Every structure is written in C-alpha cells, then in structure tokens.
Amino acid sequence: xxxFDEVVTQQPVSTLHRTxxxxxxxxxxxxxVVFFDLETGGLEPERHPIIQLAAVAVSxxxxxxxxxxxxxxxxxxxHCEVEALRGNSFGLNQPWPSSxxxxxxxxxxxxxxxxRFDECMLAARANWDCTAVPExxxxxxxSAFLRGRATTRMLSKxxxxxxxxxxxxxxxARFDVEFTTKWFxxxxxxxxxxxxxxxxxxxxxxxGELDEEFAPPDFKLSSLMExxxxxxxxxxxxxxxxxxGALDLARxxxxxxxxxxxxxxxxxAIGVTxxxx
Length: 277
Fold this sequence. Notes:
Number of helices: 8
Order of helices and strands: HEEEHHHEEHEHHHE
Structural class: alpha/beta
CATH architecture of the largest domain: 2-Layer Sandwich
CATH superfamily of the largest domain: Ribonuclease H-like superfamily/Ribonuclease H
Strand content: 15-25%
Distance between the termini: 48 Å
CATH class of the largest domain: Alpha Beta
Number of domains: 2
CATH topology of the largest domain: Nucleotidyltransferase, domain 5
Radius of gyration: 24 Å
Number of strands: 7
Helix content: 25-40%
Shape: globular
C-alpha cells in the first residue's frame, strides 16, 4: 500500500486543496487609517454608555487627511459614573462632597449639594442634547464612515475579497476597540474594522525598548505629546482633540524611529497590535 505522499501525487493537480494566501494590499499611499477616540460614561463597556466619538481618516503614510467625524450621543446620566462626566467634555463641573470631606455638603451660598448637583446636571444635559444624536444614528454614521475608508483587503472563508477599515489612536487596543466592538454587538451590527490597530501607546512603549534615550515620564497621551514636542489642538478629553493629538504623536514617533538609523515601514505596519473583537 502506498504512503500518503504517493496517494497525493497520484491526484490531478487541479484537485489538490490549496489554502489561498492573503490578498495583496494596495500601496501605502492608497491605504487609509482611521484614528478615533471615545468619551464614555465610565470604564465598563457592559454598563457605561459611549457619549462622544470622533475620528480622523488619513492616508496610510499618515500624510493626507481623508475626512473627519465628530458625534455626541444622547445618553442617560444615571448609567454613568459622575467622575467620568466631570473628566470629559460633558460639562459637569460643579464640585460635590465626598465621605472624607463632609463639610462640602453645602455649597458656598448655602444651597444643599443635592439641589446644586441636580441643577448643574440638568443644565449640562440640556446643552449636550442640543447637538447629540440617538445611539443608533451615531452607530450608523460611524459605520458608514469606516466603510468609506475601508482599504484593508481581507479574504473570506469562501475565497471572496472584502475590505475592512484600519483603526488607529492612543491606547485604543485596550479600551476604545473593546467598547466599540461591544457597542456594535448590542445593536447586532457588523463592526467593519480590522482587529489589529495602529496604537501609539504600544508604539511608544516599543520605542522605549529600542531607544535608551526615549524616556517619557509616563505613557499618557498628554505626557507623550509634551515629551515629543507635539502641540495639542483643542482641549484635553475632547474626543476630536485627542484624535488629532494621537495622529500628530504617531507622526512624531515615526520620525524618532527613523532617527534610530534603521528602516521602519511607515503607516499601518508601525505599532500594530491586537485589539479585542
């Protein structure tokens, strides 16, 4: 009885199973990367809502801007952590008491804290809702934005080529991608983005391993921007400002990698890391 190799070689070549390779990607300048950022009502995607998202699409070489998107979402503040609403662009800036500082139970004009808090919350929400859209509408618009910049070619199990968007941002692999993936799942919608992202947090961490002179105080976006001489455009914790900050940081980190003297391919190949899906 013949061995396996003999049995295989006796078959016509056309009948042999062949695993197709990955589809050829377009030139770097023809690809797109969508840098994005979320502002949320907390840190748990199962409990806390997305309240704002922003995205800026650029060419794969990070040079040409291809469009931007900024959306505020309507949400129920009861599903949010108060600290989270104070730390982002929602506008809840009124102080409130803590168990360690009970003397703060009254504001300076004698009004009970609960009444002051409710007043500030109503004012912030009314201002927010003037420009916010329902969650389903925000998801539809973000999905359309991604599909319009989907240049990463994929191959389905049936051998069909389809495209996904390539995402980028700061610490998005560990936070924003997970939030967004679960958001799409709740709406039973397909998330048209690749699971590998260009993450400037990961890129900076690897640069610190490769370059002994690269020693930022920490790897927060604001710290890295200041350390690399990147000027912020807009206010911190505004989604669009953070997106542009991450994009400018990616360009600065790429320049530092080039300065090491070795060849580093620019664009999506830099700082690519796995994200949740």
